[in-house]
């Protein structure tokens, strides 16, 4: 089921673009649970949702993730955290290097 929140939906779409398997994503509907919604904001000291964690470490919200995606940093972080396999260089890139 797709998230109701547009920002959360954008995060899931970006992670899909990078090939993050759904079984490696844990999502929670904080719109249905006010205690969880306020608790997660307090826990991370971050005022908005969604909140993205990689291997238990807080990364940021939708805007941070989108910036990381646009800069190319997200793919590196996902690979380093073994969430996605490293992308092999294309043969043409290797030949021109």
TrEMBL record:
Signal peptide segment: none
Chain positions recorded as [2Fe-2S] cluster binding sites: 5
CC terms in the record's Gene Ontology section: mitochondrial matrix
Recorded GO MF terms: 2 iron, 2 sulfur cluster binding; disulfide oxidoreductase activity; metal ion binding
Matching Pfam families: Glutaredoxin
GO biological process annotation, one example: [2Fe-2S] cluster assembly
InterPro entries documented for this protein: Glutaredoxin, Monothiol_GRX, Monothiol_GRX-rel, Thioredoxin-like_sf
Keyword Metal-binding: yes
Glutaredoxin domain: residues covered: 1-59
Keywords, in A-Z order: 2Fe-2S, Iron, Iron-sulfur, Metal-binding, Redox-active center
Domain of life where this protein originates: Eukaryota
Family stated for the protein in its record: Belongs to the glutaredoxin family. Monothiol subfamily.
Record PANTHER family: GLUTAREDOXIN FAMILY MEMBER, GLUTAREDOXIN-RELATED PROTEIN 5, MITOCHONDRIAL
Protein name per the record: Glutaredoxin
Species for this entry: Hydnum rufescens UP504
Lineage: Eukaryota, Fungi, Dikarya, Basidiomycota, Agaricomycotina
